[in-house]
Amino acid sequence: MKAIVIGGGIGGLSAAIALRQCGIETDVYEAVKQIKPVGAAISIWPNGVKCLNWLGMKEPLRKLGGPMEYMSYRDFRHNQTMTRFSLDPLVQSVGERPWPVARAGLQEMLLTAYGHEAVQFGKRVVSVESFADGVRATFEDGHTAEADLLVAADGTHSAIRSWVIGYQTERRYAGYVNWNGLVTIDEDLAPANQWTTWVGEGKRVSLMPVAGNRFYFFFDVPLPKGLNEDRTTARSDLQRYFSGWADPVQKLIAQIDPQTTNRIEIHDIEPLETLVRGRVALLGDAGHSTTPDIGQGGCAAMEDAVVLAMTLQTHSLGIEDALLRYQEKRAWRVKDLVLKARKRCDVTHGKDMQETKAWYADLYHETGDRILAGMRETIVGGPLG
């Protein structure tokens, strides 16, 4: 059996590695000539970690991950601790720990595992076809490829999604802008083993440890889309939006490198019931683009990869039947993740400020039990428990 994988990002490479691990030959095609990861880092929660473990990357992942042992929320103005708790009860409950990692390191780990030379770069797909006994992909340069099935892991702007589902989807603006990047760990800002988040005014500032003595940082601000802002104005924009915030936030703004700070308008898409057409399957952001508010976008793509490979390996009623079973397993799961992230997004970013202020008040009484219980529910819903 042979599969074409469209997309050489996190989802595509995870799928290619998983399929190959199950004895399926793969060809990976990536539109760009050189992959530049979108966003500085990613939090891989235990459900995603278990998928990477299953793919044979247990040790490499631990070299990339930061020691995130505690979680803390702080008041935006006075830097007062609202709640702080250990993540160890979650780790013990689900049997694995979370690992925040730099996206560039994760991308390189996956490329190394699959083989740099095995990815065909500069191949932008323009059309796909599914037949009774196979698939064909046609690329912008005129190249065509044929195989038994095709995995569309070509991201949130997928060129294949509309062919699979039968209509054009509109990305939904989530209502906020995210700035993110990496800085050297500074314990004057926050402990090096803690995920620290300042909240207030419907805004958020976060620090997470990753390997290499670095913090992953992000700033969230509810804003209209399409503002004339970019890296050249990043520091002054953040100083304006976070005027009056606590001293560590001001120090963080002073330490960022605007030239490596990303500014992203956050979107998602309405959950899809259809992920498969014939011998073509959507995977990752192509099938379920979500906001990053529960940290499950990349993890969901890794789950897709494992489920797809296991389904093809363990079912013998044909490829189309196996892909429909993949769809049955994944559609409900990713819908749940997209809607959970959307709900968390709205509360965090002040869509209803009364609800957001009530959340702030609740954080002062939070022992960690409720937050960890919510995380556990999300994590154990993954394919590897």
UniProtKB/TrEMBL annotation:
Residue span, FAD-binding domain: 2-338
Pathway named in the protein's UniProt entry: Purine metabolism; urate degradation
Cofactors: FAD
Catalytic reaction annotation: urate + NADH + O2 + H(+) = 5-hydroxyisourate + NAD(+) + H2O
Alphabetical list of InterPro entries matching this protein: FAD-bd, FAD-dep_Monooxygenase_BioMet, FAD/NAD-bd_sf, HpxO
Family listed: Belongs to the FAD-dependent urate hydroxylase family.
Name assigned to this protein: FAD-dependent urate hydroxylase
Record lineage: Bacteria, Pseudomonadati, Pseudomonadota, Gammaproteobacteria, Enterobacterales
Gene that encodes the chain: hpxO
